[in-house]
Amino acid sequence: MGQFDDKVAIVTGAGGGIGQAYAEALAREGAAVVVADINTEGAQKVADGIKGEGGDALAVPVDVSDPESAEEMAAQTVSEFGGIDYLVNNAAIFGGMKLDFLITVDWDYYKRFMSVNLDGALVCTRAVYKKMAKRGGGAIVNQSSTAAWLYSNYYGLAKAGLNSLTQQLATELGGQNIRVNAIAPGPIDTEANRSTTPKEMVDDIVKRIPLSRLGEPEDLVGMCLFLLSDQAKWITGQIFNVDGGQIIR
After folding, report:
1. How far, in Å, CA of 86 to CA of 186, rounded?
2. Contact in structure between 51 and 107 (CB atoms under 8 Å)
3. pLDDT, one tens digit for every residue, the chain (249 residues)
4. How far apart are CA 92 and CA 65, in angstroms?
5. Dihedral sign, CA of 160, 164, 165, 167?
6. Over the stretch 17-73, which tens digit does the pLDDT of each residue have?
7. How many angstroms separate the Cα of 98 from the Cα of each of 18, 106, 190, 196?
8. What is the pTM of this model?
9. Residue-range domains of the chain with CATH
10. Per DSSP, what are the bridge partners of residue 56?
11. Catalytic residues
């Protein structure tokens, strides 16, 4: 028996990296998992892997910046599994993102970036919250970052906005017994991070982390499962650092 038996979870950006780790962990704990990603090939591979291990999963294509796409994701989830209990807003533009300044970044790129990395969490929440309420409530976890408290151009700006969005949505949705929290990881050893952040920059960051290493996707799983579970039933509107001690606030 798993702690999420008979529950249904959507994880966006679950076609690889941290999202994949979340999806697989939820499935191991008994949840039916919707592996949602704009990368349909990656999503299908993760869903097939979960099913191969005896879990229940469905790959669904989604562009989290598009309300119609998010609504279709929610509708497919309900059609397949009967409802929605949990949402993990993990999708983001990060791997291969442009490194630029706020004052010089191409404006169209900036708008696209923010439509995914900030607005996407709101778009997906709007698509699922009524369905969660019909089940008596639920829980949402947003993927923030320690970048919210550091200089990190529009990436950090999006994550700071996501922290505030978490608090605002927790206030709006609490009356429907829907909890909203966020995880703020430090630097995590993923392919997306390796392809985006220069190695010398990563090495410098690690030198200043008390636990002296990059995080792994599995380091975040425990916090995600906790925040979705009934163990956290009186926790909402909070941002939890999982960062090896990188940020003290």
Report:
1. 23
2. no
3. 799 999 999 999 999 999 999 999 999 999 999 999 999 999 999 999 999 999 999 999 999 999 999 999 999 999 999 999 999 999 999 878 898 999 999 999 999 999 999 999 999 999 999 999 999 999 999 999 999 999 999 999 999 999 999 999 999 999 999 999 999 999 888 777 676 777 787 888 888 999 999 999 999 999 999 999 999 999 999 999 999 999 988
4. 10
5. positive
6. 999 999 999 999 999 999 999 999 999 999 999 999 999 999 999 999 999 999 999
7. 20, 10, 17, 8
8. 0.95
9. 6-240 (3.40.50.720)
10. 32
11. 155
Q: If we measure between CA atoms, which residue out of 147, 125, 132, 153 comes closest to residue 64? A: 125
Pull the structure tokens for residue 226.
Answer: 């906790």
> Would you list the DSSP string of the chain?
--TTTT-EEEEET-SSHHHHHHHHHHHHTT-EEEEEES-HHHHHHHHHHHHHTT-EEEEEE--TT-HHHHHHHHHHHHHHHS---EEEE---S-TT-----TTTS-HHHHHHHHHHHTHHHHHHHHHHHHHHHHTT-EEEEEE--GGGGS--HHHHHHHHHHHHHHHHHHHHHGGGTEEEEEEEE--B--HHHHHHS-HHHHHHHHHTSTT-S-B-HHHHHHHHHHHHSGGGTT--S-EEEESTT----
